[in-house]
Design brief:
Elements (H helix, E strand, L loop, with lengths): L2 H24 L15 H7 L8 E12 L4 E8 L2 E8 H4 L2 H5 L7 E10 L5 E12 L9 E4 L5 E4 L5 H6 L1 H7 L1 H23 L27
Parallel strand pairs: 3-5
Antiparallel strand pairs: 1-2, 1-4, 2-3, 4-5, 6-7
Length: 227
């Protein structure tokens, strides 16, 4: 695919998403609400769930990273700041809002309230009882596919790996590459810890201007005369 074909396809995808945005508004759904109350994160749900525990209701929120739209039931994976979790959506539970879900795409951000359960395939998931659209994304994300082998290793297909594109679109890199986001998170925590330590020692942080040209200094070595 050459550059011209790429931008043609991109424009078509963006036009379709804008049409979906208009349809959502006609259904009375605000695509950019002011807030959402979340009380759980994906990694905490996955680590704390135990079969046989009393049913637990949670409110989660995240970006849709995969979609399997079917007839009266669908699956998706959402990604929050701590990882991913599968969401199970059923028309009988959600009613008319399920029809709106069919207008959502990968990259959209949603809020889900429901109970935690384990699917027949053994994956801990959230059974949605309420669905709220938090952000309708108008630009498509690169689709990064993951597969776990028998040894439990994750295999990545179609990674967002173009170095130049990754630096030009850092926001996309952070969304689709968890390893990159993890490095940035650790860097932030390290800098925060250093600043906290120095603050407690009464150090003052001073920013100095950087010169465009490297600073060069020349020294003249002393001349020694022997008698």
């Amino acid at each position: 695919m050459d550059q011209h074909e790429y931008f043609q396809e991109l424009n078509a995808l963006m036009a379709r998403r804008r049409e979906e945005l208009d349809q959502l508004r006609k259904l009375g759904i605000e695509p950019y609400p002011h807030g959402y109350e979340r009380d759980a994160f994906s990694s905490d749900i996955l680590s704390e769930f135990k079969d046989g525990d009393p049913q637990r209701i949670v409110s989660v929120a995240g970006r849709i990273m995969s979609l399997r739209k079917m007839g009266k039931a669908s699956f998706c994976h959402i990604q929050d700041s701590k990882g991913k979790i599968q969401i199970y959506l059923k028309k009988d539970d959600l009613g008319d809002i399920y029809d709106a879900f069919r207008l959502l795409d990968i990259g959209d951000i949603i809020g889900i309230k429901g109970f935690i359960f384990r699917t027949k395939m053994g994956e801990v998931s959230v059974h949605a009882q309420e669905l709220k659209l938090l952000t309708k994304s108008l630009r498509p994300l690169p689709v990064v596919k993951e597969k776990t082998d028998e040894a439990g290793n994750k295999i990545i297909f179609d990674p967002f790996a173009d170095k130049e594109l990754r630096y030009r679109q850092r926001y996309v890199d952070l969304v689709v590459n968890p390893a990159v986001r993890d490095v940035l998170t650790k860097r932030t925590l390290i800098l925060r810890a250093i600043r906290k330590f120095l603050d407690e020692k009464s150090y003052l942080e001073v920013e100095t201007p950087r010169s465009a040209a490297p600073l060069r200094r020349r020294f003249r070595a002393p001349v020694c005369h022997t008698p």
